[in-house]
Amino acid sequence: MVGKSKAQAMETRSQLLDSAEAVFFDKGYAHTRLMDIANHAGMTRGAIYWHFKNKVDLFEAMVDRVRLPIDEIAEAHSDDKEDDPLGKMQQFSTEFLQQLANDNRRRRVFTILFHRFELNGEAQDLEARQKIAFGACTDRIERALKNAVNKGQLPAKLDTHKAAIAKHAYFTGIIYNWLFMPEQFDLTEMAQILVNNFYFMLQNSPHLLVGD
């Protein structure tokens, strides 16, 4: 009976996250009320407060459901014990873009983050968390690049900090633009080309070397 109750609670939580995803996508963060999410789920607002402290907590849980599994994979690839850091980074980058194009949940959540979340000072805790996540991503990229340099896969004089900033900006730009106008290009088809182009630049650009 306890197991069933726990399973029911997890199912309710999952339904609330699904509804949050749908409503935040439709209305944006600032214009969404907890009652909107409760109504979408066919539940009371009390059901939300049973599982989440407030709208911020609910939003974070919705994002984490998508972002944490991605972060775990990226973190594993940035480990200095990884024997093929450059190959794993390329594979991860390609698969990430292709899954973004084909996984509806991932696409909705990243659309919310990039286009439905207003950086207007009204959700300072969330904004601060986004900045932390942004910095952690850049740091993770740089660790992987340093490992690739140490393994002889990238130029010895590569400025890994500069290269990490360039990589983060390059892929963030692709994601932002495609989510805004997905009809502009086929991301599934273009993913490999876009990834190969960046890694060619990474290996050959004199502007990413130390002292440039």
TrEMBL record:
Signal peptide: none annotated. Residues 33-52 bind DNA. PROSITE patterns: HTH_TETR_2. This is TetR family transcriptional regulator. It comes from the Bacteria. InterPro entries: Homeodomain-like_sf, HTH_TetR, Tet_transcr_reg_TetR-rel_C_sf, Tscrpt_reg_MAATS_C. The keyword Repressor applies. It comes from Catenovulum sediminis.
